Amino acid sequence: MELFRSQVLICGGTGCSSSGSGELIRLFEEKIAENGLDKEIKVVRTGCFGLCQAGPVVIVYPEGTFYSRVKAEDVEEIVTEHLLKGRPVSRLEYKDKTVQSNVEKSLEEIGFYKKQKRIALRNCGRIDPENIDEYIAFDGYKALAKVLTSMTPEQVIDEVTRSGLRGRGGAGFPTGKKWLFAYNSKNEQKYVACNADEGDPGAFMDRSVLEGDPHAVIEAMAIAGYAIGASEGYIYVRAEYPIAVKRLNVAIGQAREYGLLGKNIFESGFNFDLHIRLGAGAFVCGEETALMASVEGKRGEPRVRPPFPAVKGLFGKPTVLNNVETYANICQIILNGADWFASMGTEKSKGTKVFALGGKIVNTGLVEIPMGTTLREIIFDIGGGIPNGKKFKAAQTGGPSGGCIPAEHLDVPIDYDNLIAIGSMMGSGGMIVMDEDNCMVDIARFFLDFTVDESCGKCTPCRIGTRRMLEILERIVSGKGEDGDIEKLETLARNIKATALCGLGQTAPNPVLSTLHYFRDEYEAHIKEKRCPAHHCNALLNFEITDKCRGCTLCARNCPVGAITGTVKEKHVIDVKKCIKCGACMEKCKFGAIIKK
Amino acid sequence: MKTLAELEAIRQKTLDRVGLRVDKDGARIVVGMATCGIAAGARPVLLSFVEEVKKQGAENVTVSQTGCVGMCRLEPMVDVYVPGKEKVTYVKMKPDMVERIVKEHIIGGNPVYEYTIGAAEQSK
């Protein structure tokens, strides 16, 4: 066994890979060898660290030095200065905006990580996901061993039930109860399935777990199999996640080789194996009945429930279907006990939740926080606040099924029930932050546009109803809104919610309803005054040239419709009647003289 | 793999490799590794520490490196931080001095005085 005095961990998640971490890994190995350090220092490719904004991320242990935005040309300096001579390259160290000091920053000291509690993400960024030994070193497969050698299926289900874990896919159904239903369904063949068809715009926690810690999901599925009496499992994962698919395949192969999947695991007589099915990216396939149809090779369309999957699921057999993040919590619950898990969170929502922060926020990335943390803490303490000194307007959670949370609810502790009470929902955990420049009507239009695209077309309310709603919204943002549009939207929304077949349709009107609830004045301004208060909807704006104009003629030369007139060195004028509001002049102006009003 | 013991064996074997990444609150051994330290032979000293800590089974210990503290004539220098105790600085280190420091100081809790900076300065 070689001993390494230092290790360089480089993020190999999707975010950092696309900003060039693959090249960095190769360069680090090359430079380390060039300096004769390859016997002492090891380079490890890990999963996502969460701070995607600062990628590619490189961490040097044992110091825990956190380098961000590392470029190929920086590698030599890190190797010769830090690795060879022990002088961290401060220029590249992550600078925390909340702390004004040049103190060497290690991972735990950074504000982004301080308030986090990483359970589902505990191994992401810490282990090499393609190495089963590293997973085992961090207590991997210990939970499966414990379950198989010392617990009955009833005890496993009881432990999960008492932990208070609820489905992390968004609806929040108690996981233990789901397992108990499947356990009680008598059948010779049962299945365990994993929903990795993460489709909410802006959510990527499932991808990160699969990329950074695939064995955690495999182990948990085997535990679920033992609990309900299933010997086979399916992971339904999007084909758009190539890195996750590859690592899952590697991990399943390694687990089989070690006998942790297959026949007679730990000589307990328990058999379990896994299959991967790739989804083609249809949003509706995240709905459980549509997902199972797709696994079976049928068209991905939902069906009426009941019967629920626990009674009649995959291939007509009782099935437990959980989300990736739900599974990622299971092994920790088994190892640390239900009481440990239940000690975190709020009364009805236990443990932690991973959120994908996106939109107008400084630290775009992945965070895991205890339930009950407030939106303010997530956005301002962990997320670093709103960039460019703008004002917070709303946060969108729950994707196309959720809603917008306005500033007045910033201090509500986040859990399943509180989010529903304020008109949004947990969803899979996408959190899109919006500032004063975002038009709420346009946000509602964006999400409706998404659902209209993704509606499978099986039921009328969703297929036709959402399209009618979208048409009205498009009319409003293009300045053609009419009296009564808001009422029409509300009636349609109520009917769709009440009559759509599956979750996709039933929740599709939520973005409209929540923005109507909190930002009705913006809808009214669009319709009655033909004005967009956020200065976002181009059709409702007029471009104007201010006194800053130097008369350089650049705008006039670039206007595609000849709407700008004026002589050299004198202020130009836009003819609003001719202007098509394309914004080309504003982009070209070097003096910031053109504004939207 | 069929037994818990086999799983535990893999865990122990790999822990040596990933142990660096676990947060430690135990002793820290910091070796001066600037140009002066390296020229004076700090690299073999650092590697001996890594090996000796492993060999003697000292747990919860971090071996790390640092830059130049300015007393280049005394390099290779090694600082040992034991929680709750004062920092001890060893100077003019050689690999054969490492075994005693790990045994007597890191595990035993008694600094090896004749290797410390105090002793070196007195004997001048």
Structure description:
The complex is a heterodimer of chains A (597) and B (124). Chain A is 39% helix and 15% strand. Chain A is α/β, with parallel strands linked by helices and 597 residues long. Chain A has five domains: 106 residues, Glutaredoxin, CATH 3.40.30.10; 211 residues, NADH-ubiquinone oxidoreductase 51kDa subunit (Rossmann fold); 84 residues, Ubiquitin-like (UB roll) (Roll); 89 residues, de novo design (two linked rop proteins) (Up-down Bundle); 55 residues, 2-Layer Sandwich (Alpha-Beta Plaits). In chain A, the strands form five sheets. In chain A, strands 7-8-6-5-9 form a five-stranded mixed sheet, sandwiched between helices. In chain A, a hairpin with a 4-residue loop joins strand 7 and strand 8. In chain A, helix 7 packs antiparallel against helix 8 and helix 10 packs across helix 13. The longest helix of chain A has 18 residues. The radius of gyration of chain A is 27 Å and the shape is globular. About 1% of the residues of chain A have low confidence. By secondary structure, chain B is an alpha+beta fold. Chain B has one domain: Glutaredoxin, CATH 3.40.30.10. A four-stranded mixed sheet of chain B has the order 2-1-3-4, with helices on one face. The longest helix of chain B is centred in the N-terminal third of the chain and has 15 residues. The chains are: A alpha/beta (597), B alpha+beta (124).
